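Researcher: Next sequence.
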Amino acid sequence: MSTARKRPRTYDPAKIRTAVLTQFGHVRQAVRTLTPEQLALPTRLGDWTVRELAVHIGVALQAVGRFLDKPEPPRQEATVLDWPFTTSANSGALADIARELAGRHPDLDAFLADIEKRFTERLAEQPATRMLDTAAGAMPLGDYLVTRTVELVVHTDDLNAAVPGLDIPYDRQALAACTRLLADALAVRAPGASTEVRVPPYAVVQCIEGPRHTRGTPPNVVETDPLTWVRLATGRTAWHSALADAKVSASGERADLGDLLPLMA
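Model: Next structure:
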């Protein structure tokens, strides 16, 4: 049964497909330029190397094909808003898979190119309404592709943090979808309307129980930029650190999100 407490926003399936492929292309092009020494660098994901992280990004796209290979569920059980809360349960298994595949595929570019080709071919055959049996529950392909923007944007940021000067670009549509999904997930975790969280130019949500404002500037406001929000929501940046570094502005007695973050890890 869905845990979501609000109606998910809608996303344009064609734009999301393009965003996923564009961001994956940015990653693949950047990884192609890395030296063996850079691929062996550590990342902020425990003991994952850059090579293993790049492999995991490919696996995140492969997941679509794996779900398409399974029988189609008869009905929808989950929405895109359920997904962020199911991601930490299998993190150890994902690390093992990435490590094993990294060893089996020394030609990283060929590995990612094959994934991109198969992904593109499979998407051309399937409507956005096709149900997938995901770990979060049965959901439409179009919804699941929105979750891939989160995987791609978050791990693009991880790669940029691991390799000095890498600077992989972010597709605007992918960053927007990622930001919106994670903002909506906050509203699911802490339903209410006493606090407004602004992540311009992509998202504004209300959350946290308390007095509802009806006009003018709300009494409790949190504002930050998209990448800082993504880092807060996924545990890459701590709330108190973002405040101390002036990456977040927070005003009002209900503007402290420290106990609600991260949303996923």
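Model: The longest strand covers residues 195-199. Residues 190-251 form a domain with the Nonspecific Lipid-transfer Protein; Chain A fold (CATH 3.30.1050.40).
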